[in-house]
Amino acid sequence: MGKSRSENNVIITGATGMVGEGVLIQCLNSPEINSVLVINRKPCGYTHPKLKEIIHQDFFDFSTIETQLIGYNACFFCLGITSVGADDETYYKMTYTLTMHVAKTLVKLNEAMTFCYVSGSGTNENGRLKWAQVKGKTESDLMKLPFEQVYNFRPGFIKPLQNQKYAHKFYKYINWLFPIGRTIYSSGFCTMIELANAMINTLTHTNGRKILDGNEIIKLAKEST
User: Euclidean distance between the first and final Cα of the chain, in Å?
Assistant: First the structure.
């Protein structure tokens, strides 16, 4: 199965959102990760010996920070906006165009990089819903870039870590549903720990190009590294 690396140096986007924050916490706690770089528009609020943070406003232009993005073998891309209330043009720009710009910049700077993209359950390039089509196109075009690996994650309901700063407030009212949902439809329910550990465990693989649904995320999270 595995491939051992001398170091795992990871870039995380979206660390001021619920998913990105959860992935960040797990990476900082993981002995498999040597260093973490987060790129944010505002401070993430975390400090750690492994952690470096770049505050950068324009994700469509990384030219002023490119030299700081060299030397990383993974990107866990957790940045995104909801389609609710967003017009089609804005959603496409902030979902497809932004993601592809960041990905193309990173693959140019780092050989042998693994790119993990969080899309979501229901993503389908040929689907009926516009958001699903945009996410699906993003997944498809990421697969075409010359990364060593691309993993597209399609989680459904994600149970956040306890005491996350950026977890949606409504989760504390609906977390009781998690064990019921997991029993009835396991693929639609995973924990933040499982999602983050699955991302970390991609780094023991080579030449992976996969779309992972909930059950596959749970399975990958259980792999020993």
Answer: 10
